[in-house]
Amino acid sequence: MASKQAKKAPLAVIAAGGTGGHMFPAQALAEELLARGWRVVLSTDARGARYAGGFPEAVTRRTVSSATFARGGLLAKLAVPFRVLGGIISAAFSMLLDRPAVVAGFGGYPSIPAIGAAWLLRVPRLIHEQNGVLGRVNQLFAGRVSAVACGIWPTELPAGIEGVHTGNPVRSLVREKTAAPYIAPGDYPMSIVVIGGSQGARILSDVVPAAIAMLPEELRQYLRVAQQARPEDLERVMSAYDEAGIQAEVEPFFADVPRRFSEAQLVIARAGASTVADLTVIGRPAILVPYAAAVRDEQTANARGLVEAGAAVLMPESQFTPASLAEQIASILTTPDAASRMARSATELGLPDAAMRLAELAEHLAGPPSA
Questions:
Q1: Please, are residues 95 and 13 in contact by the beta-carbon 8 Å criterion?
Q2: Where are the alpha helices (DSSP H) in 44-161?
Q3: What are the residues facing 133 on neighbouring strands?
Q4: What are the CA-CA distances from residue 232 to residues 101, 199, 205, 243 (Å)?
Q5: Beta strand spans in the chain (E)
Q6: What is the H or E stretch that residue 317 is in?
Q7: How far apart are CA 279 and CA 155, in angstroms?
Q8: DSSP 146
Q9: Mean pLDDT, range 244-257, rounded to an integer
């Protein structure tokens, strides 16, 4: 009897790719919908499935075929349309067997099969764009979905497309740290957290340890650093901190970023959408370094709101040198009142209820539950 009742619960298919930028907000929506009594399926490809460990156990994982023209040689590129078509057919067949009430795509090529199948079957569908500029896949589907939810506001949208500002959903571990009390810099241990992401960590590994080593001893003696670095950079980054006498943790990945942010006096990071969302919900001063290789320069767009509010300092890669970074770090950590204002300004931009807003949009598109 219980299984029959569970079967009546509306089904949401969440389509997301294998990067944290796509998966974290997708996970947050999944958590919210489950709490509202929905059934949830995560639709992703084989690569994305490896990054789905944070999703609740109640979420069913469905792996479908997808591909991108951005990777592989000529033969791989020639196979892309066939792999994507196969994924769409597979996703459509699954939807015919168990029709979803709504399909939500979070960008990235692994979301193509589910959103494509939903469009063919006329299932209510939405896309969520985490960045201030639409990604390629979301550009493709922006005119073919029922709603475009925007994490950054305003988001640059194609002509004729209107967005709904939901904010970027954050995981429950981040929401638990909403507006965590900020301890202003002072003559006691201070924490700097450095987050670079898988693609953008190299320049942070090159610049941040050198910059911190340049700080005056009266400031440097109080610092402790937690820095994410690529595996091939770990040894040299750790050595740089050891030589400077800095207490540091250097790891390829931190599973407890929300806690580390909440305890930090300063965050130095790329301006990925999830990082920006975490910073605004928790409320911390930041130095943001947009990823210069991004085709659409979306990270500069992501950082704009924080910078305009006085919550963050923007440092383009062209200006990101040890000397200039050391100057910015010292400026923030030696002016506690200004650092506290930065933290408050960040919090004022936060939308800890973004997952709720997105879930309400999904429920609106799905319509009243069927009897």
A1: yes
A2: 46-49, 74-97, 112-121, 136-141
A3: 156
A4: 45, 13, 10, 19
A5: 11-15, 39-44, 60-63, 102-105, 125-129, 147-150, 163-165, 190-195, 223-228, 247-251, 266-269, 286-288, 312-314
A6: none
A7: 19
A8: S
A9: 94
299: pLDDT strictly greater than 90: yes
* pLDDT at res. 289: 97
What is the token pair recorded at 259? 């806690």
Tokens of 355: 């997952």
Give me the mean pLDDT over the 72-82 stretch.
60
Q: Give the rounded distance of the alpha carbon of 215 from its chain centre.
A: 31
- Between CA 86 and CA 344 the distance in angstroms is 49
Residue 365 has a pLDDT of: 98
Element (H, E) at 331: helix 322-333
What is d(CA 66, CA 87) in angstroms, rounded to the nearest whole number? 6
Lowest mean pLDDT among 13-17, 117-121, 149-153, 293-297: 293-297
Distance (Å, rounded) from C-alpha 258 to C-alpha 283?
Answer: 11
Tokens encoding 290: 């947009």
Tokens of 233: 């950079």
What is the structure's pLDDT at 49?
Answer: 78
- Map tokens 């639709």 to a residue: 43
- Would the pLDDT of 71 be above 80? no
pLDDT grade, residue 46 (50/70/90)? confident
Check: CB of residue 12 under 8 Å from CB of residue 38.
Answer: yes
Q: What is the per-residue burial (b if ≥16 Cβ within 10 Å, else e) of 142-159?
A: beebbbbbbbbeebebee
- Within 10 angstroms of residue 327's Cβ, the number of other Cβ atoms is 13
Q: How far is CA 286 from CA 144, 150, 268, 282, 333, in A?
A: 37, 22, 6, 12, 11
| 84-115 pLDDT per residue, tens | 888 899 999 999 999 999 999 999 888 999 99
Torsion region of 173: left, alpha or beta (phi above 0 gives left; psi -120 to 50 gives alpha): alpha
Residue-wise pLDDT tens digits, 33-43: 999 999 999 99
Length of the chain: 371
The pLDDT, as a whole number, for residue 68 is 57
**Spatial separation of the C-alpha atoms in residues 26 and 115, rounded to whole Å:** 14
